[in-house]
Amino acid sequence: MEKAISLIDFIKDEFVPEPKQIPERIKKEITLDLEDIFCPFCGHPLEYHYLSNARPLITIKYDISLRVVHKRCVNEECVACASKRNFYNPSLDLYMLPKKTYAMDVILLIGHLIQQEHYTEEEVVKYLLEEHGIIISQPSVNNYKRIALALGEALIMGNEEKIKKGLDGLPVRVYSIDGLSSNRSRTLFVIRDLISGIVLGSALLDKHDADTIHDFMEAVF
Ligand SMILES: [Zn+2]
Ligand SMILES: [Zn+2]
């Protein structure tokens, strides 16, 4: 039981909204390593090459200053060595798009808010600030919205046989396709040129069925 001399303490003035407490960002300095692995072309152990300059990566929870370990194959008879192919942790391309500061989780959240929740771009700016402490401009939201839409594009048609044929028919280059669960039931696929390591395309697919992958690959090649 609590004694009160007035009810005033229990009354809230609803006309004055309480300012939202903006969540604090967690700052991290991260060096993304590549565990000692062997060259996929010749089996020679990869050697440390360099550590990239720090670049910002904003995820839903963290403000990351990210440096990435790059390795190389030093076997002179190997194509990866001859082409000076850099190797780095594959999760980089799965969660960070080239030249983009906001990570895949933020991009997917923007896409979700706009597509599923029908937020305006302005509302997304406000939401990201108030819920996650993320500062983002409206033009950036627009830009990331387009990326999210492109990633989430639902695709139909195709079959596994066609994918295999398509891969066999590729001249000279070797491609790798990585799929990794990154958001709910969706899978992010990244296709890269194995020799140069350049990412040729990435897509967020609802189902990692053969048809969808095939259509994605047709869009890339
Ligand atoms: Zn090699
Ligand atoms: Zn070097």
Automatic annotation (TrEMBL):
Entry protein name: Uncharacterized protein
Organism: marine sediment metagenome
